[in-house]
Write a structure and sequence with these properties.
Length: 433
């Protein structure tokens, strides 16, 4: 029943393993099945401390079983929860405890008692929530998390199979009556949908298991392609969408899934399929300057051919420009003796035309500049917009001004009336790198 999984993993009988043991029929059946194969078994029990009658008795039951069968007993009692989403908090705290226990005993294997009925419930529950394909395959028999393996060797069996095993082998267990309450969606699936599915197809759990494995294989293939594309177009929380329309939709959506998964990490329960759909539509149809607000105040901005993820902090500065200077944005302004180029990255100035010293600073709200070759002055904000400088760069973009506050140059963007051509007289040559 379980030997096949152990052989697949090539786990030595002398290696310590950690088993998640609640005291219920599933985990007690798993524990009994593992006992002949391993010398050192650590039973990790979580007392969820929710006020349900019997939780302390469950803890005592598992502890006494471990003492009788010479297993190591590790316990965590959850002392408090935040008000939001009890189930997600409980799951997170459980796995934090499991990881601490694995490290304590230098074990690389966590065994859990998930069975075929659990897999059906998980897939149906996520389907009803509108989860992504990545989440819809449920969970695998063997999966890696951080530096350990999660092993679920009972997926080919149902709850009834495990109950029958316990009866036949006199395995004691405890019953959690809260699993019968209709207030939880999973419980309603268990009580109403599962019996119907099993009546239609006795081994329906095996059908779901087969589908789960196929979905996982497809997901791994798509994920690999999407990861390669993501590496090429996503850097520093900025997504380049200049060739978004040339890629298949399934790949672009998966790229977005990878990006959001990286951002949300352990909080991925906040994401649903609708978020990917909204973001995809935003990329394809929103105007430059548009914003989205996602769960937990994730700000997503569109700026021309880029999508920015996360709140952007404004950084202002004003620095005296006397020698070569590396600017806060990482770029550089240098004083040159000679220069052939006449692009916007070069500025030639005549000292008697301006008030020294020069300064480099960020834009102020009412800043205006007399653009070379044009009559009158123009707002710097308009110059940035017309030059398609992304909004997140504008807040820290360098502007060169003289001591009277007159703008003499926007490096790499526009020159002012103070700029001289190569044929005119000038004393200073500046170059922006």
């Amino acid at each position: 029943m379980i030997e096949e999984t152990i052989k697949k993993l090539k786990i030595s009988s002398k290696e310590p393993i950690v088993v998640a043991v609640s005291g219920g029929p599933d985990s007690m059946a798993l524990l009994s099945l593992l006992e002949p194969f391993f010398e050192t078994i650590i039973c990790a029990h979580v007392n969820h401390n929710t006020g349900r009658k019997g939780q302390d008795e469950d803890e005592k039951f598992v502890k006494e079983y471990c003492e009788k069968h010479h297993h190591i007993f590790e316990i965590m009692k959850i002392e408090e929860y935040d008000k939001k989403n009890f189930h997600n908090q409980a799951h997170k705290k459980r796995y934090q405890f499991f990881e601490i226990t694995l490290k304590k005993y230098h074990s690389g294997y966590l065994f859990t008692a998930h069975h075929g009925d659990d897999l059906i419930e998980t897939i149906l529950f996520r389907m009803m929530r509108g989860s992504t394909i990545e989440a819809l395959h449920g969970f695998s028999e063997i999966s890696r998390k951080n530096d350990y393996m999660i092993v679920r060797p009972l997926l080919k069996y149902t709850k009834e199979d495990l109950l029958q095993y316990n009866i036949q082998n006199n395995i004691p267990y405890r019953i959690d009556n809260s699993n019968e309450k209709d207030i939880y969606t999973r419980n309603r699936i268990r009580k109403n949908l599962l019996p119907f599915l099993k009546k239609e197809q006795k081994n329906v759990h095996l059908k779901f298991l087969k589908m789960s494995k196929e979905l996982e294989e497809m997901e791994n293939f798509i994920r690999k392609l999407a990861f390669e594309k993501k590496e090429a177009c996503f850097q520093n929380n900025t997504l380049d969408i200049s060739y978004w329309g040339t890629m298949d939709t399934i790949i672009t959506k998966r790229i977005l899934q990878l990006i959001l998964s990286d951002i949300y990490k352990e909080r991925q329960e906040r994401l649903e399929t609708i978020h990917i759909e909204i973001l995809q539509d935003f990329i394809l149809n929103a105007q430059s300057g548009a914003k989205l607000i996602f769960p937990e105040n994730l700000v997503i901005k569109k700026e021309y051919q880029t999508i920015l993820f996360g709140e952007q902090r404004e950084t202002s500065y004003e620095l005296k420009l006397e020698d070569d200077m590396i600017l806060p944005n990482g770029h550089e302004i240098k004083f040159l003796k000679e220069e052939e180029s006449d692009s916007n990255f070069i500025c030639r100035l005549k000292k008697e035309d301006i008030n020294f010293p020069l300064f480099v600073r960020t834009r102020k709200e009412q800043d205006r500049m007399q653009v070379k070759g044009l009559k009158g002055s123009k707002k710097i904000k308009e110059i940035f917009i017309n030059s398609k400088i992304p909004e997140h760069l504008r807040v820290s973009y360098p502007i060169v001004v003289d001591n009277a506050g007159k703008i003499v140059w926007i490096p790499g963007v526009k020159k002012s009336q103070f700029d001289k051509t190569k044929g005119e007289k000038y004393d200073i040559i500046l170059r922006y790198y």
